[in-house]
Amino acid sequence: MNTLFAIALVFAGCCSNVVFLELLVRDFPGCGNIVTFAQFAFIALEGFIFETNFGRKKPHIPLSNYVIMVTMFFTVSVINNYALNFNIAMPLHMIFRSGSLIANMILGIILLKKRYSASKYLSIVLVSVGIFICTIMSAKQVNVEKGATEEDSFYAFMHWLLGIAMLTFALLMSARMGIFQETLYKKYGKHSKEALFYNHFLPLPGFLLLSTDIYRHAVLFSQSSPVEVPVIGLSVPVMWLYLLMNVVTQYVCIRGVFILTTECASLTVTLVVTLRKFLSLIISILYFHNPFTAWHWVGTAVVFLGTLLYTEVWSSVRAAIKGEKVDKKAE
């Protein structure tokens, strides 16, 4: 029952979160900092009350290690959201972040000297090719849509290329953080909820560096058209309502993933998150009519095929079927 509940939270929370994020980004493409700050503040407040008991509970993992992890986590979160300022469409943003498993694997080979099966290496190739196809197709759209003149077209392309570089850096940094987190859990034990709190609480002072941008967007949000909140009957600026719903759904999504990690094997968690990303992508394309060519669909299919190959879903399904057959024969 807990597993089904967690899966429902992941799909409902994460897919809804993508919708509200895109509603925010479509009107204010540069609002990534205020969105990130609101998410961090909300999750940190919840963790301070319910996880640390108002600061009275000591952490299991030394704070010095959390500072390192938090620096990476803060950097990844800010860069991922800020990349949306650079002509990066939401579908491409989601496809790029789907390469996190493979980025983790590549760094595992380089840093931890790990070795994998042939199917794992094939999955790297598939995901890389899929992301490359989608990126090239998006690059062509940037050139077509953006410049009336050759100079404008070049500027738009370089602007977009900078966004791609930011996503690539964030992807690799996220993978490095995952490896660091894995080593901490092996040494001190798995304390996911504690890590969730400190990852969101410790970076809060860092947002002072972004305070000017956050304040500017807070003013812009306050000037958005008012909308009446159901049940309460109060009128609030629509952007603040979108932001609130984005924060709440982000929390629901993260909580769902947390419950799932305590109830299921990592393979199941990976599969659920992968399917959730695919559904979010479909929603983004259909609901917001984002440009998505046949080649984008090919690239997306290759990315998710590579991810599923990495998680060895097919082998698990075959083993489960064989197990059922054996059971039936035994009966």
UniProtKB/TrEMBL annotation:
List the Pfam families hit by this protein, alphabetically. Answer: UAA
Tagged with keyword Protein biosynthesis: no
Q: Write out the annotated subcellular location.
A: Endomembrane system
Question: Under the GO molecular function aspect, what terms does this record hold?
Answer: UDP-N-acetylglucosamine transmembrane transporter activity; UDP-xylose transmembrane transporter activity
Give membrane topology per the record: Multi-pass membrane protein
Supply the alphabetized keyword list. Answer: Membrane, Sugar transport, Transmembrane, Transmembrane helix, Transport
Q: Which InterPro entries match?
A: SCL35B1-4/HUT1 (IPR013657)
Residue ranges of the TM segments: 32-51, 63-83, 95-112, 121-142, 154-175, 196-218, 294-313
On the tree of life, the source organism's domain of life is: Eukaryota
What Gene Ontology terms describe where this protein resides (cellular component)?
endoplasmic reticulum membrane; Golgi membrane
Q: Which NCBIfam families match?
A: nst
- Which family is it part of? Belongs to the nucleotide-sugar transporter family. SLC35B subfamily.
Q: What is this protein called?
A: Solute carrier family 35 member B4
User: Which organism's genome codes for this protein?
Assistant: Cyprinus carpio (Common carp)
